[in-house]
Protein backbone atom coordinates (compact mmCIF):
# COMPACT_ATOMS: atom_id res chain seq x y z
CA UNK A 1 0.00 0.00 0.00
CA UNK A 2 1.42 3.35 -1.01
CA UNK A 3 0.65 6.83 0.27
CA UNK A 4 1.51 8.38 -3.09
CA UNK A 5 -0.92 7.15 -5.73
CA UNK A 6 0.52 8.99 -8.74
CA UNK A 7 3.72 10.95 -9.24
CA UNK A 8 4.54 13.33 -12.07
CA UNK A 9 8.02 14.70 -11.46
CA UNK A 10 7.81 16.63 -8.20
CA UNK A 11 4.01 16.63 -8.28
CA UNK A 12 2.42 14.00 -6.04
CA UNK A 13 -1.18 12.83 -5.78
CA UNK A 14 -1.69 11.29 -2.38
CA UNK A 15 -4.01 8.31 -2.14
CA UNK A 16 -5.82 9.62 0.93
CA UNK A 17 -6.72 12.95 -0.65
CA UNK A 18 -7.59 11.31 -3.96
CA UNK A 19 -10.09 8.82 -2.54
CA UNK A 20 -11.50 11.44 -0.20
CA UNK A 21 -12.15 13.68 -3.21
CA UNK A 22 -13.66 10.79 -5.20
CA UNK A 23 -15.99 9.95 -2.31
CA UNK A 24 -17.03 13.58 -1.88
CA UNK A 25 -17.69 14.17 -5.58
CA UNK A 26 -19.62 10.89 -5.90
CA UNK A 27 -21.79 11.76 -2.90
CA UNK A 28 -22.50 15.28 -4.21
CA UNK A 29 -23.42 14.07 -7.70
CA UNK A 30 -25.74 11.38 -6.35
CA UNK A 31 -27.26 13.90 -3.94
CA UNK A 32 -28.10 16.29 -6.79
CA UNK A 33 -29.65 13.47 -8.82
CA UNK A 34 -31.73 12.27 -5.86
CA UNK A 35 -33.00 15.77 -5.06
CA UNK A 36 -34.06 16.25 -8.68
CA UNK A 37 -36.06 13.02 -8.56
CA UNK A 38 -37.65 13.86 -5.20
CA UNK A 39 -40.38 16.32 -4.28
CA UNK A 40 -37.95 18.38 -2.17
CA UNK A 41 -37.76 22.02 -3.22
CA UNK A 42 -34.23 23.24 -2.61
CA UNK A 43 -33.27 26.53 -4.30
CA UNK A 44 -29.85 26.50 -5.93
CA UNK A 45 -28.58 29.32 -3.73
CA UNK A 46 -29.61 27.48 -0.56
CA UNK A 47 -28.09 24.25 -1.85
CA UNK A 48 -24.75 25.94 -2.56
CA UNK A 49 -24.66 27.66 0.83
CA UNK A 50 -25.65 24.50 2.67
CA UNK A 51 -22.96 22.48 0.92
CA UNK A 52 -20.30 25.10 1.62
CA UNK A 53 -21.13 25.51 5.31
CA UNK A 54 -21.44 21.81 6.05
CA UNK A 55 -18.26 20.87 4.21
CA UNK A 56 -16.22 23.59 5.90
CA UNK A 57 -17.57 22.85 9.37
CA UNK A 58 -17.18 19.11 8.86
CA UNK A 59 -13.63 19.42 7.58
CA UNK A 60 -12.52 21.80 10.33
CA UNK A 61 -14.20 19.74 13.04
CA UNK A 62 -12.68 16.46 11.87
CA UNK A 63 -9.20 17.98 11.63
CA UNK A 64 -9.40 19.81 14.97
CA UNK A 65 -10.49 16.66 16.83
CA UNK A 66 -7.63 14.69 15.26
CA UNK A 67 -5.14 17.36 16.31
CA UNK A 68 -6.53 17.42 19.85
CA UNK A 69 -6.29 13.64 20.13
CA UNK A 70 -2.67 13.74 18.92
CA UNK A 71 -1.78 17.07 20.50
CA UNK A 72 1.53 15.89 21.96
CA UNK A 73 2.79 15.11 18.45
CA UNK A 74 1.55 18.35 16.89
CA UNK A 75 2.84 20.44 19.76
CA UNK A 76 6.36 19.34 18.84
CA UNK A 77 5.77 19.66 15.08
CA UNK A 78 3.06 22.34 14.60
CA UNK A 79 3.53 22.61 10.82
CA UNK A 80 2.34 19.00 10.53
CA UNK A 81 -1.16 20.29 11.29
CA UNK A 82 -1.36 21.62 7.74
CA UNK A 83 -0.51 18.33 6.00
CA UNK A 84 -4.07 17.11 5.58
CA UNK A 85 -3.22 15.18 2.41
CA UNK A 86 -1.32 12.70 4.58
CA UNK A 87 -4.44 11.75 6.55
CA UNK A 88 -5.66 12.89 9.91
CA UNK A 89 -9.42 13.43 9.96
CA UNK A 90 -11.77 12.03 12.61
CA UNK A 91 -15.20 11.20 11.21
CA UNK A 92 -17.11 12.00 14.38
CA UNK A 93 -15.30 15.32 14.65
CA UNK A 94 -16.74 16.23 11.26
CA UNK A 95 -20.18 14.64 11.56
CA UNK A 96 -21.32 16.44 14.71
CA UNK A 97 -20.48 20.05 13.72
CA UNK A 98 -21.57 19.49 10.10
CA UNK A 99 -24.93 18.08 11.22
CA UNK A 100 -25.38 20.94 13.69
CA UNK A 101 -24.57 23.63 11.14
CA UNK A 102 -26.82 21.99 8.54
CA UNK A 103 -29.69 21.72 11.03
CA UNK A 104 -29.42 25.40 12.05
CA UNK A 105 -29.18 26.54 8.42
CA UNK A 106 -32.14 24.47 7.24
CA UNK A 107 -34.34 25.53 10.14
CA UNK A 108 -33.49 29.20 9.65
CA UNK A 109 -34.33 28.96 5.93
CA UNK A 110 -37.40 26.79 6.49
CA UNK A 111 -36.07 23.86 4.51
CA UNK A 112 -37.33 20.28 5.06
CA UNK A 113 -34.72 19.26 7.64
CA UNK A 114 -35.52 15.59 8.09
CA UNK A 115 -36.33 14.88 4.45
CA UNK A 116 -32.93 16.24 3.43
CA UNK A 117 -31.21 14.43 6.29
CA UNK A 118 -32.78 11.14 5.16
CA UNK A 119 -31.72 11.80 1.59
CA UNK A 120 -28.04 12.49 2.31
CA UNK A 121 -27.43 9.91 5.07
CA UNK A 122 -26.80 6.93 2.74
CA UNK A 123 -24.46 9.11 0.69
CA UNK A 124 -22.42 10.03 3.78
CA UNK A 125 -21.88 6.32 4.37
CA UNK A 126 -20.82 5.87 0.74
CA UNK A 127 -18.39 8.78 0.88
CA UNK A 128 -16.96 7.41 4.11
CA UNK A 129 -16.35 4.08 2.39
CA UNK A 130 -14.22 5.77 -0.29
CA UNK A 131 -12.33 7.72 2.37
CA UNK A 132 -11.41 4.55 4.24
CA UNK A 133 -9.89 3.10 1.07
CA UNK A 134 -7.67 6.17 1.07
CA UNK A 135 -6.79 5.40 4.69
CA UNK A 136 -5.78 1.89 3.63
CA UNK A 137 -3.40 3.20 0.99
CA UNK A 138 -1.96 5.79 3.36
CA UNK A 139 -1.62 3.31 6.22
CA UNK A 140 -3.43 5.44 8.79
CA UNK A 141 -6.15 4.00 11.03
CA UNK A 142 -4.31 0.66 10.97
CA UNK A 143 -5.25 -2.40 13.00
CA UNK A 144 -3.78 -4.54 15.72
CA UNK A 145 -1.34 -7.32 15.00
CA UNK A 146 -3.08 -10.55 14.01
CA UNK A 147 -2.44 -14.01 12.58
CA UNK A 148 -5.70 -14.16 10.64
CA UNK A 149 -5.36 -15.21 6.97
CA UNK A 150 -6.65 -11.86 5.68
CA UNK A 151 -4.08 -9.85 7.63
CA UNK A 152 -2.18 -7.20 5.66
CA UNK A 153 1.49 -6.30 5.87
CA UNK A 154 2.61 -2.74 5.15
CA UNK A 155 6.12 -2.54 3.72
CA UNK A 156 6.27 0.94 2.19
CA UNK A 157 8.64 2.96 4.42
CA UNK A 158 6.47 6.05 3.88
CA UNK A 159 3.36 4.28 5.20
CA UNK A 160 1.78 5.54 8.41
CA UNK A 161 1.10 1.98 9.56
CA UNK A 162 3.34 -0.37 11.52
CA UNK A 163 5.67 -2.02 9.04
CA UNK A 164 6.46 -5.67 8.32
CA UNK A 165 3.93 -7.16 10.73
CA UNK A 166 0.51 -8.70 9.89
CA UNK A 167 -2.26 -6.33 10.91
CA UNK A 168 -6.04 -6.26 10.89
CA UNK A 169 -7.10 -4.33 7.76
CA UNK A 170 -9.38 -2.12 9.84
CA UNK A 171 -9.52 0.47 7.08
CA UNK A 172 -11.13 -2.13 4.82
CA UNK A 173 -13.46 -3.18 7.64
CA UNK A 174 -14.61 0.45 7.77
CA UNK A 175 -14.89 0.69 3.98
CA UNK A 176 -17.03 -2.45 3.83
CA UNK A 177 -19.09 -1.25 6.77
CA UNK A 178 -19.80 2.06 5.04
CA UNK A 179 -20.82 0.26 1.86
CA UNK A 180 -23.19 -2.11 3.70
CA UNK A 181 -24.78 0.81 5.56
CA UNK A 182 -25.15 2.69 2.26
CA UNK A 183 -27.07 -0.17 0.62
CA UNK A 184 -29.19 -0.84 3.70
CA UNK A 185 -30.16 2.82 4.11
CA UNK A 186 -30.88 3.09 0.38
CA UNK A 187 -33.23 0.13 0.78
CA UNK A 188 -34.81 1.67 3.88
CA UNK A 189 -35.31 5.00 2.10
CA UNK A 190 -38.10 3.39 0.09
CA UNK A 191 -39.71 1.92 3.20
CA UNK A 192 -39.30 4.61 5.86
CA UNK A 193 -42.35 5.25 8.00
CA UNK A 194 -41.49 8.74 9.30
CA UNK A 195 -39.21 11.61 8.33
CA UNK A 196 -35.82 11.36 10.01
CA UNK A 197 -35.87 7.57 10.28
CA UNK A 198 -33.06 6.98 7.78
CA UNK A 199 -30.87 9.65 9.37
CA UNK A 200 -31.24 8.29 12.90
CA UNK A 201 -30.73 4.75 11.61
CA UNK A 202 -27.47 5.90 10.06
CA UNK A 203 -26.28 7.45 13.33
CA UNK A 204 -27.25 4.34 15.31
CA UNK A 205 -25.82 1.77 12.89
CA UNK A 206 -22.57 3.59 12.34
CA UNK A 207 -22.06 4.22 16.06
CA UNK A 208 -22.56 0.54 16.91
CA UNK A 209 -20.47 -0.91 14.08
CA UNK A 210 -17.69 1.63 14.59
CA UNK A 211 -17.59 0.71 18.29
CA UNK A 212 -16.77 -2.91 17.44
CA UNK A 213 -14.33 -2.08 14.64
CA UNK A 214 -12.42 0.10 17.12
CA UNK A 215 -11.61 -3.06 19.09
CA UNK A 216 -9.33 -4.15 16.26
CA UNK A 217 -7.62 -0.78 15.78
CA UNK A 218 -3.97 -0.53 16.75
CA UNK A 219 -3.10 3.08 15.98
CA UNK A 220 -2.82 5.78 18.69
CA UNK A 221 -6.16 7.63 18.61
CA UNK A 222 -6.90 8.84 22.13
CA UNK A 223 -8.56 7.00 24.99
CA UNK A 224 -11.10 7.68 27.72
CA UNK A 225 -11.20 6.25 31.26
CA UNK A 226 -7.62 5.05 31.02
CA UNK A 227 -7.52 2.55 28.17
CA UNK A 228 -11.11 1.36 28.58
CA UNK A 229 -12.60 3.15 25.58
CA UNK A 230 -11.16 4.90 22.57
CA UNK A 231 -12.37 8.43 21.91
CA UNK A 232 -14.51 7.19 19.00
CA UNK A 233 -16.06 4.47 21.16
CA UNK A 234 -17.00 7.03 23.79
CA UNK A 235 -18.56 9.34 21.19
CA UNK A 236 -20.29 6.35 19.60
CA UNK A 237 -22.00 5.46 22.87
CA UNK A 238 -23.16 9.06 23.32
CA UNK A 239 -24.66 9.02 19.82
CA UNK A 240 -26.09 5.49 19.79
CA UNK A 241 -28.23 5.89 22.92
CA UNK A 242 -30.18 9.03 21.88
CA UNK A 243 -30.52 7.84 18.28
CA UNK A 244 -32.08 4.57 19.45
CA UNK A 245 -34.37 6.50 21.78
CA UNK A 246 -35.51 8.79 18.93
CA UNK A 247 -36.15 5.84 16.62
CA UNK A 248 -38.25 4.02 19.22
CA UNK A 249 -40.11 7.16 20.26
CA UNK A 250 -40.94 8.25 16.71
CA UNK A 251 -42.10 4.77 15.74
CA UNK A 252 -44.29 4.57 18.84
CA UNK A 253 -45.77 8.00 18.09
CA UNK A 254 -46.46 6.97 14.49
CA UNK A 255 -48.31 3.84 15.56
CA UNK A 256 -50.30 5.78 18.14
CA UNK A 257 -51.28 8.33 15.50
CA UNK A 258 -52.33 5.65 13.02
CA UNK A 259 -54.37 3.79 15.61
CA UNK A 260 -56.06 7.06 16.58
CA UNK A 261 -57.00 7.78 12.96
CA UNK A 262 -58.36 4.31 12.27
Walk me through this protein's architecture.
With 262 residues, the chain is mainly alpha-helical. The chain has one domain. Helix content is 64%, strand content 6%. It is built from eight helices and six strands, in the order E-E-H-H-H-H-H-E-E-H-H-E-E-H. The strands form three sheets. A two-stranded antiparallel ribbon has the order 1-2. It has a two-stranded antiparallel ribbon with strand order 3-4. Strands 5-6 form a two-stranded antiparallel ribbon. The longest helix is centred in the C-terminal third of the chain and has 31 residues. The mean pLDDT is 87.
List the helices and strands and how they pair.
Layout: E1 4-8, E2 11-14, H1 15-37, H2 44-69, H3 71-76, H4 91-108, H5 113-138, E3 152-153, E4 166-167, H6 170-189, H7 197-214, E5 223-224, E6 229-230, H8 231-261
Antiparallel strand pairs: 1-2, 3-4, 5-6
Helix pairs in contact: 1-5, 2-4, 5-6, 5-7, 6-7, 7-8
The major β-sheet equals: 2 strands, antiparallel
Low-confidence runs: none
Our estimate of the beta-strand percent is: 5-15%
Secondary-structure element string? EEHHHHHEEHHEEH
Category from helices, strands and their pairing: mainly alpha
* Quantity of strands, as a count: 6
Total individual domains: 1
Strand order of the largest sheet: 1-2
Shape: globular
Helix content: 55-70%
Mean pLDDT equals: 87
Give me the Rg, rounded. 20 Å
State the separation between the terminal residues, measured CA to CA: 60 Å
Query: How many DSSP H or I helices?
Result: 8
Amino acid sequence: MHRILFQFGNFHIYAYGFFLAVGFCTAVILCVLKIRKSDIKLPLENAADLLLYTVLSGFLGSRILFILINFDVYRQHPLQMLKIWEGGLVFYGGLIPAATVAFVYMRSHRLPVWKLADLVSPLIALGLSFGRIGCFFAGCCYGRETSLPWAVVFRDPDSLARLNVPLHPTQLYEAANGLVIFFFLSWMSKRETFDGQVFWLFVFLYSITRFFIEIFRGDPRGFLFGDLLSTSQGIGILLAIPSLFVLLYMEKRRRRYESGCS
